[in-house]
Amino acid sequence: MKGKVITGLFMLMLLCTVVGFAQTQSKQFTGAKAVLKHYKALYVLNSGDEKKITGTLRNLKNALDDPRLKGKLEVELIAFSDGVAVYQKAGPFEKTLLELQARGVILAQCENTIRERHIDKTELFDFISYVPSGNGEIIIRQQQGWAVVHP
Hints:
Hypothetical Protein Ychn, Chain: A
């Protein structure tokens, strides 16, 4: 009998602990706290798929709109390989890119891509910047402490 009482008490204590822990966790967690004064994120785009580009630009905007990061976030979008499509004048992204740039986003294109694909810079928006290589940009930025985001 004594063993059943101890087992019953143990089970009751275990249940209370699990329920209490679950309630504590669900009520307390509201996401990561932005305790630093400054954050840096490099968004990587190497796909020419319109849905992928649109999703990447939306993700970037969502980060800028996150109330925890308001006024604390420095962002760069690096395009290389098929991602060059985001900066082509023939594409549908000019308005969105200009809005992002107005919010401080650095818009960078890999020069290796345009050279290897024989793309003339006149085919791309004149408001973008160029870096020697997309991979080099990723490597350098990551070592500088930038979060590398692959939406």
